[in-house]
Amino acid sequence: MAPRVLIADKLSPAAIEIFTARGVQADVKTGLSKDELLKIIGDYDGLAVRSATKADKDVIAAAKTLKVIGRAGIGVDNVDIPAATAAGVVVMNTPFGNSITTAEHAIAMMFALARQLPAADASTQAGKWEKNRFMGVELFGKTLGLIGAGNIGGIVADRANGLKMKVIAYDPFLSPERAVEIGVEKVELEDLLARAEVITLHTPLTDKTRNILSRENLAKTRKGVLIVNCARGGLVDEVALRELLDSGHVGGAGFDVFVEEPAKANPLFGSDKVVATPHLGASTVEAQENVALQVAEQMSDYLLTGAVSNALNSPSITADEAPKLKPFVALAEKLGALAGQMVDVGLKSIDIAYEGDVAGLNVKPMTAAALAGVLRPMLAEINMVSAPAVAKERGITLSESRQEQSPVYDNLMRITVTTQLGKRAFAGTLVGGSPRVVEVKGMELDAPFATAMLYVNNLDKPGFIGALGILLAEAGVNIATFNLGRTAAGEDAIALVGVDQAPDEALLAKVQALPHVKEARSLTF
Q: What local confidence, expressed as pLDDT, does residue 413 receive?
């Protein structure tokens, strides 16, 4: 029986043609309510969506035969990935199909703000002819600040350079070499806020980027700055931005995305200094054709052959390799996630060393999994397929090494990240098929990964463990595992604590304030 795919959002007719040509039955049923979707989703092997249909945990629970969800586009905010993973459903996206379209929309927003085009159009068509009211500014010679300089940000930089703008960029993953290549000056966020006359955002929404233009940061911008967000709602404090627009500190704002969508009401609406569009960044004929073709091809390949492309929750591994590589891929991703959560400044290079029997296996999926783990804390939507390309875009050097013998373990994997501040190394192995951390900062330990963990780097002094335990107990945080490493008595030490509840910022601050503590971090896996 041919696999069945439900196309729940409007896609290009080319997608249906590809499904049909490959032997996959595709049913188009758009505009379904949640109840309607719940009633029929159990009949399908695949679900193709854009951004309107919400594939939440209820939908996934009802989809008893569902094998794959394909997102025609990059953002997967409308898909419950943890629920899909738990149900064994592969979630795919098409990360590069609409990059040019989204970049062009940001450039269009810049021009619209600089010349007040929407307000001038409305005034003129109303017969007012207010020529003296609309005094615009030139983009020529202005300083454009990019927050995020990946694929889309790099395209915006290229277009802005063509307009003879001065382009500066804040991106922790942008290397100096890549900055030169795309024609931008790499700066820190504080410098960008102080210098930029136009600011555009090109970063995913993660815990680290949420409200990156907060009330505090918006207050640090230049008077008259123009702000464009065609990336993700939630990157900018909308209430604070409206206040600064009304006060005259911010000269204008162009928004294609909002905290709540569909945006029937929003703090920014009603200001003549705001240009708003209904999430049109990817809405061109060319982009929709591209992502439709890609999602149809990827879903067909998976349903018919088991091949996985651009999966956000599944490694790209052939059927023959899967049983042997799966535990090593899991180790690589978790070890990478540990390294990624320990990095706060720009990455220069990542080296992955394989020792023992693992060195004789196909390490490509492991390297991709490790790289995705390192980058995911800042780039939430990254996956094993896109991670190498994203790292290359940012000029991050990736290297591998193999050694057939390991001094202690049958198999050992070591990830070394180099940043502007130096190097950090993390090593792990498999014990009974389960990933474990065995080295951090050159200190040996043996710790299983937990969903939530607390990392503490301190001087090895008496009383530390007791003081830490008391703080966690007072906060109601239960300890599941407690593992220690140190260089020598009284010197550098680390603790990796598996906890049942993730420590909040207040608790982390208290841990950081303990005597002899150098660093405290909350980790999630």
A: 97
**Residue 199, strand partner residues:** 145, 227
As annotated, the active-site residues are 232, 261, 279
Residue 353, beta-bridge partner list: 401, 414
From 426, 415, 435, 442, select the one nearest 353 (Cα to Cα).
415
pLDDT of 285 higher than 80 = yes
Which class for 271: exposed (0-12), middle (13-18), buried (19 or more C-beta within 10 A)?
middle
Question: Which amino acid, one-letter code, is at 487?
Answer: T
CA dist 186 and 308 (Å) reads 35
**What pLDDT does 14 receive?**
87
User: CB–CB of 178/397 below 8 Å?
Assistant: no
The verdict on whether omega for the bond into residue 204 sits within 30 degrees of 0, i.e. cis, is no
β-strand 250-255 against 274-276: which pairing, if any? parallel
Q: What is the pTM of this model?
A: 0.72
pLDDT tens digit sequence for 361-410: 888 889 989 998 999 887 776 777 678 877 888 899 999 999 988 888 99
Pairing mode, strands 452-459 and 443-448: unpaired
- The pLDDT tens digits of the residues spanning 68-77 come to 999 998 888 8
Amino acid at 510: K
Q: Which long-range contacts (CB under 8 A, 24 or more apart) does 431-440 make?
A: 433/327, 434/327, 435/327, 435/330, 435/331, 435/334, 435/335, 437/335, 437/338, 437/483, 437/496, 438/409, 438/412, 439/414, 439/485, 440/338, 440/485, 440/494, 440/496
- Give residue-wise pLDDT tens across range 306-345: 778 888 887 666 656 667 888 999 999 999 999 999 988 7
Spell out the domains of the chain, with CATH numbers in brackets.
Answer: 4-96+286-312 (3.40.50.720), 99-276 (3.40.50.720), 315-440 (3.30.1330.90), 447-525 (3.30.70.260)
Alpha helices of 248-385 — where are they, by DSSP H? 285-305, 322-341, 364-375
Is the dihedral angle over the CA atoms 131, 135, 140, 145 positive or is it negative?
Answer: negative
What 8-state DSSP symbol labels residue 142?
Answer: P
Q: Is 290 exposed, middle or buried (0-12, 13-18, 19+ CB in 10 A)?
A: buried
Query: In the predicted model, what is the mean pLDDT of residues 199-220?
Result: 95
Contacts of 188 (CB under 8 A, 6+ apart): 170
